[in-house]
Amino acid sequence: MPDARPLTPEERLADAKRELHLPRIVVICGSTRFMAEMTEADLRETTAGKIVVKPGCDLKSPHALWSDPAGAEALKARLDELHRAKIRLADEALVVGDYIGDSTRAEIAYARSLGKPVRFAHPEVDPGA
Fold first, then answer.
1. What is the pTM of this model?
2. What tens digit of pLDDT does each residue of 105-117 get?
3. In a domain, 79, yes or no
């Protein structure tokens, strides 16, 4: 009898989530100009019984942590990588906002490349529709 193939990291994560009886995890994507809409979506998804992950920093709003332009650029790259990790962790993505820029378009493409369902608060902006 041939050896069973080893599980992929994604399969091991899915198994662990099932074993732990975790609720679905939704990642909120979109431009940080829609932080208020993200907060509202977080509220709605949480009250629907889902675990929510979303951007935690709005680099468009002034803050001492990203006041230095060189440091802000490096931070943006780290935050983009962190958000991709949130997408990998999630069971589905929810895109908020009625505008899809390059970063959000890349997040949508990444989620779809991983086979994650992607929902839109404004379905008319779905770049794949």
1. 0.91
2. 999 999 999 999 9
3. yes
